[in-house]
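Need a sequence for this fold. Nothing fancy.
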């Protein structure tokens, strides 16, 4: 089916089918726009979740956080035999 055939078949659709499709397309566009806005809003809301609290390089809070993170991420040491 070429581009011209698609346009021709669209023009030959009954008016009710065209209205139904256009309504479906508008509802789909509205739902997509709402979902996009929701994703952007969530991203902006949680963008700074680790921001100023842990961005204190050189302070005792930052050092304590880095030490705790290293301890959590460090694999446990293998037991030594006596």
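Here you go.
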């Amino acid at each position: 089916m070429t581009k011209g055939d698609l346009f021709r078949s669209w023009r030959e659709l009954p008016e009710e089918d065209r209205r139904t499709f256009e309504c479906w397309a508008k509802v789909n566009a509205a739902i997509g726009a709402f979902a996009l806005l929701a994703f952007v809003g969530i991203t902006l809301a949680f963008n700074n979740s680790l921001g100023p609290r842990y961005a204190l390089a050189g302070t005792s809070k930052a050092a304590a956080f880095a030490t705790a993170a290293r301890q959590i991420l460090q694999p446990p040491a293998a037991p030594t035999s006596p």
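For context: The two ends are 79 Å apart (CA to CA).
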